[in-house]
Amino acid sequence: MQCLRSIRGFALGLAAFAALGTVGCGGEDGDAETIQAAITVENALTANALTANGLRDPLAREFLKYVVSCALDEDDSVTFRIDGKRYEFRGALGLAPEWGRSHGSCDGDCQRWVSACVLARVDAAGVKRMISIRGDNRALRPEDNELRRYTDREATFFGNLFVRNQPRYMCLSPGKTDNERVCGDSLDDCPMTVVGSCDDACGDEGRYGSFGDCSDRGWARHGTVYHESITVFLPK
Q1: Cys-Cys crosslink for 113: which of 123, 172, 201, 228, Cβ 3.0 to 4.6 Å?
Q2: Taking CA 12 as the corner, what is the angle to CA 44 and CA 4, rounded to the nearest 5 degrees?
């Protein structure tokens, strides 16, 4: 089983990572408690976890759990120790499996795919709810039963959580005027910039209804354009 050896080069301000824990593979022996991350596509990440710092902070570990879940395949995992406790976070979606390989790294494309996935799984109330996430990435191809069950197109997410200032954006699906799941009662309280309707902000609509090539200015093909965007669908 592989480890996410290059994770300490990213992970959004977890600067104390190397000092606080030793990264190893999932098969490491030890008597300390093991805590495993869920591998289902759930959206219980709290907004505060996006800017948490230091792995002794539970919110920072929550963020890392979702990074690993989005990036790695379900056969891969990350383990580390903090104060004698052993943590294991498992991969799930495999948006950036190369990051977990020996001497692997995460370039701009990788960072943006993982960021879009993490942003899509933010929940204002920290409630675990199953969602369908889709985009122009083979790891996000939905199954037939998923297409039938999850038909309420909610919003599209894009940005980069691994660079300074953490640019993070959301556009609303056509006909939507709010997003209570992510923003709570008001878009003004949203943990990401809402750039308007995806019809205006994005230049491409994919086969499964996902939007791509979305602009941070809310106007397709202007400003910074993110091909690596993920659209969330909810059950009706």
Answers
A1: 228
A2: 85
Of 125, 158, 161, which is closest to residue 53 (Cα–Cα)?
Answer: 161
What CA–CA distance (Å, rounded) separates 43 from 123?
Answer: 6
Residue 11 is predicted with a pLDDT of 38
Give the residue carrying structure tokens 């030793």. Answer: 22
Q: Residue with structure tokens 């980069």?
A: 160
Q: Kindly report, residue by residue over 190-236, the tens digit of the pLDDT.
A: 999 999 999 999 999 998 999 999 999 999 999 999 999 999 999 98
CA dihedral 73, 130, 162, 51 (to 10 degrees): -140
Extract the tokens encoding 166: 């953490």
Residue 181 CA, chain-centre distance (Å), reads 15
**Domain residue ranges of the chain, discontinuous segments joined by +:** 5-100, 132-235
How far apart are the C-alpha atoms of 92 and 219, rounded to whole Å? 33
Residue 134 dihedral angles phi and psi, to the nearest 5°: -135, 150
The pTM (predicted TM-score) of the whole model is 0.84
The per-residue pLDDT for range 122-135, each reduced to its tens digit, is: 999 998 889 999 99
CA dist., res. 72 & res. 139, Å (int): 10
